[in-house]
Amino acid sequence: MSTPAAGRELGAFLRAHRALLKPEDVGLPATSRRRTPGLRREEVASLSGVSIAWYTWLEQGRVTASRQVLESVARVLRLDEAELRHVLRLGGYYEPETARAQEHWGDSLKAVLDSWPTSPAVLVDRNFDVVAWNEAWAAVWGEPTAVPAGRRNLMWLVAADERLRAVLRDSDWEPLAMSVFQHFRAQAGAGPADERVDELYRQLAADVPELSHWWGCHSVGGLTTRVVTATPAGGDPIRMSLSSLRPLDAPASLILLCTPKSRQDGAAVADLVDRPLRPVGSARKAG
User: Rounded to an integer, what distance in angstroms lies between the CA atom of residue 90 and that of residue 281?
Assistant: First the structure.
């Protein structure tokens, strides 16, 4: 739910964009008797399917709108994708995962992962399901395709994947796993009900019952930058700075990037990527 401050900001945003439109922009006849530029409140209300009184309260920050109503108002005001995302965030909702954003994951963001040849990187969606990864990620943390598709999820990998847990230093594992879970809870809790979220909780309860006390905890948090140490089988410890990035074109998604702390750490990752019998290729996309 949006805060009073967000409600006031939402109202100001809607008023500003209402003032930018002419009646003919929305299919209404032009008239000369207008004291102020732009559409009237009653026009936006009528086209959006709400009452003039309710829409007035919305611009005054006095009511909370449903996602459906905000999307309807956004269509009337001819808002673009970035503006719609802003309106939904101010209203307390997640922005939609548009077809454009998903296409961006498969093209531009996949290329971004490839541009970090010695920095393990993975792209996840709003439910933390793995969308794409680079060769460095597979070399250090394990090939995601080795995990069944339904469990190819960042939270499941950190909590239950034996390969990843074996590579990650013991002292790093629990703080990182808890941070991933708290970030997931904060994100999933703010969004609409999702069957995938319930499915993930059931999988975790079945696969790592010893962590059941985590699922009953109501703490939330952010996935902040930290240093982690990975020790792949037969290799030396590799220290990396783990950070998370949100692409502007797909703000519901998340990129996790592991940047080697030193030249020696980078060389160790490169050695893992170049080991014989490893498939050579670009960033992989989940399928």
Answer: 41
